[in-house]
Amino acid sequence: MPLPRPQPMALPVSDLTLDMGPKLDMERYVPAFLNSIANKLSSGASRLYFKHFGIGVVEWRIIVHLVAEPWCTAARICQLIGMDKAAVSRSYALMEDRGLIQFRPAEPRGREAALTVAGRDLHDRILVMALERERRLLADLSPREVDTLINLLGRLQARIPHVNAYDPTPEEIGLPAGAGGPAKAS
């Protein structure tokens, strides 16, 4: 007969605290701020584009890049938009089924995509909506502020490889020397 599982002990309310030390100021923590803006813009665009055209924001991003760089591999699209290959592959399949893209073989074992005439027509129709959304987003900024914003965002984007290269030592994150990350399952 199996032993009964121990039940977790509930902590008395007096042992709980709402102030448990340092915390992020979510109104000033730039990565969270940028992420929130990007997520809200993406979900709004996705809803709008799906409602009117039956595609989401991932397909739109791919279309935009295929206009700028026709005959592009999925790996290159992933590099350009920062998405994983599985999401791009799913979008490629949907877009191919809808007749929006076509493929040709690419070296060494891949394939490259380009927009069809229907894909380019879809791009041109969505572009009107995308530019209006951008206009509404930036409406409270002067042309000079828009230029400054674009400059600052470009500089932040250029720092991403440096940020993503950061890997603190165990001591820097309060672990004993020689301690690694979570144990890996074998």
From TrEMBL:
<keyword id="KW-0238">DNA-binding</keyword>
<feature type="domain" description="HTH marR-type">
    <location>
        <begin position="27"/>
        <end position="158"/>
    </location>
</feature>
<keyword id="KW-0804">Transcription</keyword>
<dbReference type="InterPro" id="IPR036390">
    <property type="entry name" value="WH_DNA-bd_sf"/>
</dbReference>
<dbReference type="Pfam" id="PF12802">
    <property type="entry name" value="MarR_2"/>
</dbReference>
<dbReference type="GO" id="GO:0003677">
    <property type="term" value="F:DNA binding"/>
</dbReference>
<protein>
    <submittedName>
        <fullName>DNA-binding MarR family transcriptional regulator</fullName>
    </submittedName>
</protein>
<keyword id="KW-0805">Transcription regulation</keyword>
<dbReference type="InterPro" id="IPR036388">
    <property type="entry name" value="WH-like_DNA-bd_sf"/>
</dbReference>
<dbReference type="GO" id="GO:0003700">
    <property type="term" value="F:DNA-binding transcription factor activity"/>
</dbReference>
<dbReference type="InterPro" id="IPR000835">
    <property type="entry name" value="HTH_MarR-typ"/>
</dbReference>
<dbReference type="InterPro" id="IPR052067">
    <property type="entry name" value="Metal_resp_HTH_trans_reg"/>
</dbReference>
